[in-house]
Specification:
Length: 315
């Protein structure tokens, strides 16, 4: 976009004034950096150094635009600089978003890993419990089988003895056999009841495991919803923080300008007081030594005194 000669000259004059003001501001910041001392002001020095670099960069761009306006009556370099700055901002925002997404994914994966590890530990504990129950069931079954064998052997021995004894012994043996059969039935009933009890416990554990799995799935869904809400709140807080930082920078710039204005006024007041004191001291010296215009006034006073003394003598 080209401009007329008058417009380009006006803009060039304004840019030249801006360049001078930027040079003055850069010099002032450099002096303030030299005044700062100690490790407590390291952040302030870094901030002032950044401001000096920004002033130099802006002054360079203003000089380039000034030359372009004088030679070509256009400001295409300014448009290019604005485009580059906007592209940098867009790239920086994209990079920040990517880093934020990567961090969120990493945290999510770590949480999922912890939850899976906890589930695996619970399943291992349940597996150990089921193995223990199966072992106890097998052990009880083996005990019952051994007891049955021992009872059968005892029965065989008693049967052999009863064959040698009389009919009364046979009757007693039959009674004992009935008692033994009754005991075996009782033991079988106890074994069946214990096996049923263990089977019920195993089914209850399986149902509890299914309930835990369902509850963990529901908890995962709730946590994901909470995480999404937290991410939204964090985004809003980051936007607010960015707005507050921008306002803080504007307020800081106003405070710096006011501080510089107060410093300039204080220097002017000190110079005025020093000039007033110097003038008063010089006027006092002139009066005491009778120099300049004060010498004539003293000579007139001496002449009047001599005339009065002469008149008194004549009388």
């Amino acid at each position: 976009m080209s401009l007329s000669r008058i417009q380009s000259l006006r803009l060039a004059a304004v840019l030249e004034d801006c360049s001078d003001q930027l040079d003055i501001l850069g010099h002032t910041l450099t002096v303030q950096i030299n005044w700062e001392q100690g490790t407590a002001t390291a952040q302030e020095k870094a901030r002032l150094t950044k401001l000096v670099r920004d002033c130099q960069y802006i002054s360079q761009q203003v000089s380039t635009l000034h030359l372009e306006l004088e030679e070509e009556q256009s400001f295409s370099s300014l448009q290019q600089v604005v485009g580059v700055v906007e592209q940098k901002k867009v790239d920086e925002n994209i990079r920040r978003e990517l880093m934020r997404e990567l961090e969120l994914r990493r945290q999510k994966l770590l949480r999922q890993k912890d939850e899976v590890q906890q589930k695996v530990e619970k399943l291992q504990g349940m597996d150990l419990l089921s193995r223990d129950l199966k072992y106890q069931l097998n052990l009880q079954s083996s005990k019952l089988a051994n007891k049955k064998k021992i009872v059968e052997k005892n029965l065989e021995l008693k049967l052999e003895q009863t064959q040698k004894e009389n009919s009364q012994a046979e009757k007693l043996l039959e009674d004992q056999l009935q008692m033994l059969h009754k005991q075996l039935k009782d033991e079988r009933r106890v074994h069946e009841e214990s096996e049923t009890f263990l089977q019920n416990q195993l089914e209850e554990l399986q149902e509890q495991l299914q309930q835990w799995q369902q509850s963990t799935k529901q908890m995962l869904q709730e946590k994901e919803q909470q995480l999404n809400g937290v991410c939204c709140k964090r985004t809003l807080n980051l936007d607010r923080l960015t707005d507050m930082k921008r306002k803080f920078k504007e307020m800081e710039q106003v405070v710096m300008e006011d501080r510089e204005e107060q410093e300039r006024l204080r220097q002017q007041q000190e110079e005025a007081r020093a000039a007033t004191k110097l003038q008063a001291w010089w006027r006092g010296c002139m009066v005491r030594r009778g120099l300049g215009s004060f010498k004539k006034a003293e000579d007139d006073k001496k002449g009047k005194k001599k005339k009065k003394e002469g008149k008194k003598k004549k009388k």
